[in-house]
What we know:
This protein is an alpha+beta fold. Among the domains are: 1-107, no CATH class; 226-274 and 428-597, no CATH class. 43% of the residues lie in helices and 17% in strands. The protein is built from 16 helices and 15 strands. Strands 1, 2, 5, 6, 7, 10, 11, 12, 13, 14 and 15 form an 11-stranded mixed sheet that branches. A two-stranded antiparallel ribbon has the order 3-4. A two-stranded antiparallel sheet has the order 8-9.
Amino acid sequence: MELLEWLRSGVELALEWLKSKGAPEWIESIPTAITIILALVALLLIYQEFAKCFILLRRMNPNQRRGSFSQVFGSVLRLAFTDRALLSLDRRTLARRTRILIEHEMFSTKPQPDWRDSGTEPVESLFPIRAIMTLGRWRKMKVAYWKKRREWWKSMRRALAIEGNWTIYVDNPALVSARIEEIDRYFECLRSLGYEGEEGDRFICPIEIASGFVTPLHLLTGLLVKFDQKWPQILESFDRDANTGAQHKPLSASDRDLRQIQLFIYNCWLLWGPSIPICECRNWAARYSVIQYGFGDENNSIEIVGESKEIRSSLDQLMAAQIEHERAIRTIGADRPEPKPFTGMAIPANVIGRVRLSGSLGGRQKEQVNALPRAALSSWGGSQDERPVLFISEIVASNAVEGDVEFRGARRGRIAADANALPSRYYSAYLWAAIVVLVPTAEGAIAINSLPTEGAEPWKDFIPFFEHGNLADPESCLFGKRQLATKVITGLASALRDWGEDREPLHFAFACAIDEAGCGHSLAYPEWSGHVTMRELIGEALNTLALTDPIIKRMRDDKLLDMKHFSGAPGQHDFSACGFPTIVASHYARMESAERML
């Protein structure tokens, strides 16, 4: 036994050293007694290790057949005596192998004998033919079950091999996002059993996701993941906000109508979870970058975190490959056209990394947190629902030298072009543009309703017009943005009509959009913005629709829609896209504090 042999050899070396130093002869009688004591201690440690793994696997499968005593005991026993894992001192520890098994089982469930729950077990019957038919079906199901089980254990053996490939293979990132409850339970179980720090807040196994869409956006996590729990807060907040103005003063009837429309659009936009662009300002400038990786829809997405240089290099390679792909599509015979900018905003990619939860980043050490973007940390640290985060590289502490700890990057995976991506591509997301409502003040100026003071409620002051679009297809993406520009202009015209002509007209200001941060800084990855911006398209729509609609003509001629109201100077723009994580976090905090007061 490795452990006992190691202990015995250590004791014997220590005794030899003592005798060489002149120790009395009776000390030679100690080895056997010490070895026995150490053996008992080792058995106790082994028991604790086995018990901890047993509890972990059982807690991961509550109220399920997989979590039964017999199945869990059998699995841990098999792991304990495979490759001497129970007594090993290296990476073949039982705890590590149990965790590898659990992580793989999240995405490859152990087959269970389904016939026991389907009512097809053979039963006594007055009709022999019926009994024979039932017995035949039962036997077929049993044979199929044992075949699946053998195949499952075969795949698990490959994953659990000492020198094997521990990588978990998943078809798309939506399957990772769908496992959020299991992943959260896994980390909670690890914490409850004493796994702390880097051992307890991330997967041991890397995950390779075969196909998904990468885009340099950040998801403002929506509430619909747990809508059954949060709808009461949402509705109470909506009612409260819809009936109070600045400094919580009551609204007039016409003001209330506008506020109802504004808040309804804002809540719809937020509940589903919109995405904001990543720019070069201080909110996003960091050693490590965050980008979105999704499948089907942005609300199924997870986040990729990696060293900024590595992320940028990977995105440059993906964009170059995409532009070449678009060029090849337009090629006829030997005539190759000039390359054109990509008017989409998402590109298919294959990614490998290690999973963590966004909530685990809130308590990191200062040196590690400072390497992550402030905007992402604000989003992750709020009351929003957690999201899986896939680290392709991460910050780790090196060994201490003279009392100092150096934090460095460790590579955990990579981003690569998806060679098997389908020609017809689909990745839906909200295309949006935020318009801030400006109102006349007592001094005759035009200003934002909620001033940037303590207790301000900025979510009451902007209207995020949005349109579902396909970011992965360039023609569909540009079409959706044009539709959105028309919606912005016609929507503002409708608000002007309802406002009436007997008082100072409403004014509006363009704040930001999915392709423009609005903070005065350039996008971090401008070539991923869809090439034609919402600012341009809204201006075009305003000029075109003004030819046939007198209200829109007035909006243009009287400059009721100001496209240059905000500047990027400090304190001059409280509605930039990079400030939305803070606005959303404070809105959620206000909801929760109001609920506690009730």
